[in-house]
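Renewal narrative, Specific Aim 1. Our central claim is that a sequence can be written position by position from structural information alone. The example that follows is taken directly from our test logs and has not been curated for this report. It begins with the structure tokens describing the chain, in the order in which they were read.
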């Protein structure tokens, strides 16, 4: 009987870490309606309870008004999330893009400042790896398969589950500490290339 070897799912690093055309950049900025001095937070996920998009929305109440959240995806929680946005008077700071095709994700991610998914449960979490490959810092919770690739202050920041105030504090850390941000981006990109790109995974297979 042989030993069990876990081979992770992969990310197409060449798709996500590529030079964008001027048109792609402009289209992405137009889609998110990016204004000067805005800090763009993004989450790309199905809008379901386990992905805790509600926690990101709530975290905006602890952040300055120049923070905007881009929610890329569809799902059963969309009406509830729109209702929460309205209840908290955050309609000017939250934009729902609906479904985004895979090939259009890199420009959208590159136009953003921080990727966030404060999951209540998670498998591997390919969306994290895609954001890491693009070169934006990520914030996630220590659940499921996330700790396999997300090391606090090394390849991203760890946030408590269901804690919007803690999430807002982690966002502020990434905005204020440019050295930490730079180190996290470099480490995360290196990790994706070394361990999670399809090239390295095919070798492992």
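The sequence written for that structure reads:
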């Amino acid at each position: 009987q042989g030993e069990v070897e876990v081979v992770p799912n992969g990310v197409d690093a060449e798709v996500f870490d590529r030079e964008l055309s001027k048109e792609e950049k402009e289209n992405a900025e137009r889609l998110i309606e990016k204004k000067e001095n805005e800090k763009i937070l993004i989450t790309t996920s199905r809008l379901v309870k386990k992905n805790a998009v509600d926690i990101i929305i709530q975290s905006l109440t602890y952040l300055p008004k120049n923070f905007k959240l881009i929610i890329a995806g569809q799902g059963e929680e969309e009406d509830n999330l729109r209702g929460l946005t309205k209840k908290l008077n955050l309609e000017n700071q939250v934009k729902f893009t609906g479904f985004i095709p895979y090939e259009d994700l890199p420009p959208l991610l590159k136009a953003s400042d921080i990727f966030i998914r404060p999951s209540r449960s998670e498998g591997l979490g390919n969306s994290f790896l895609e954001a890491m490959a693009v070169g934006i810092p990520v914030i996630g919770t220590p659940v499921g398969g996330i700790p396999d690739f997300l090391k606090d202050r090394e390849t991203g920041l760890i946030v408590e589950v269901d804690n919007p105030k803690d999430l807002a504090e982690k966002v502020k850390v990434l905005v204020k500490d440019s050295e930490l941000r730079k180190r996290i981006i470099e480490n995360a990109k290196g990790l994706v290339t070394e361990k999670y790109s399809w090239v390295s995974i095919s070798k492992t297979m």
